[in-house]
Design brief:
Subcellular location: Cell membrane
Keywords: Cell membrane, Membrane, Transmembrane, Transmembrane helix, Transport
Shape: globular
Largest sheet: none
Protein name: Probable membrane transporter protein
Main location: membrane
Pfam family, one: TauE
Strand content: under 5%
Helix content: over 70%
Number of strands: 0
Oligomer: single chain
């Protein structure tokens, strides 16, 4: 972690990071995947590699709040099918981070954001009737879970960007709102906790990054409370369109930086 970067954040930059932290909390209890905006903000203000280490503890804080809110709605057969493939994706992502420098990571994050936005737009145009969540036990369901799991593990390790991947998987599997939120809450809490030793081993999490997290975590809590209040009131379609637009802008900004 570059400590000079942490201690020379301007007031406007800290305000942007605080807004991103609030969006982390909101995404965990309302619209999963909205934290791709947070990812873009963190990667734009901090070095791209360092940003993943600073963001991870904030994501875990949001996951804890989401589990406390939606713990009764998780679908465990889906989770058990996903975890082995996700573990493989996390290992692949860790090896990639060992090799990649900051510029490659920034470009990769931007490309991942644009890819997820493109796939999401494509899916919204072509999606057929969704499956039933219990279809995960079929052969086709296991293959689908495996492919999404590996991609989700890789993207969450490299860029903390597993949200859009898992959102598309859970939506295509036919999850209703509360089942979606409960399953994704446990999924990301377990996966993000498993990433901590890898991130610490790569030097992405240390005492200095945790100091910045301590200042930002206070903004995750109100974001989660706003999300809990808004989840039954929000215009989901409009918000998804805004998130996709912001994701595209963030991805382009990182690629052109």
């Amino acid at each position: 972690m570059n400590t000079m970067t942490l201690w020379h954040i301007s007031g406007w930059e800290f305000a942007a990071l605080a807004l991103a932290a609030l969006l982390v909390g909101f995404s965990k209890t309302a619209v999963s995947g909205a934290n791709t905006v947070s990812l873009a903000i963190f990667a734009a203000i901090l070095p791209a590699r360092a940003s993943t280490g600073v963001l991870l503890p904030l994501l875990i804080a949001g996951d804890v709040l989401a589990v406390a809110t939606y713990r009764r709605h998780a679908h465990w057969p889906t989770l058990w099918r996903l975890f082995p493939a996700v573990a493989a994706g996390v290992v692949i992502g860790t090896l990639f981070l060992v090799w990649a420098d900051d510029g490659v990571v920034r470009t990769s994050i931007g490309a991942i954001l644009l890819l997820m936005a493109g796939v999401t737009l494509w899916r919204r145009r072509t999606a057929d009737r969704p499956d039933d969540p219990d279809a995960v036990t079929t052969r086709a369901g296991r293959a689908k879970a495996g492919s999404y799991g590996v991609l989700g593990g890789f993207t969450t390790m490299v860029a903390n960007a597993g949200g859009p991947v898992m959102s598309m998987y859970l939506l295509s599997a036919g999850f209703r709102k509360l089942g979606f939120l409960g399953t994704s809450a446990f999924f990301f809490l377990i996966v993000n906790l498993s990433k901590v030793p890898f991130s610490a081993g790569l030097g992405l999490i240390d005492g200095h990054s945790l100091l910045l997290d301590a200042a930002l975590v206070a903004f995750v809590v109100p974001g989660a409370l706003i999300g809990k209040w808004a989840v039954h009131r929000i215009n989901q379609r409009l918000f998804e369109q805004l998130v996709i637009a912001a994701t595209i802008v963030g991805g382009l900004q990182l690629l052109l930086r």
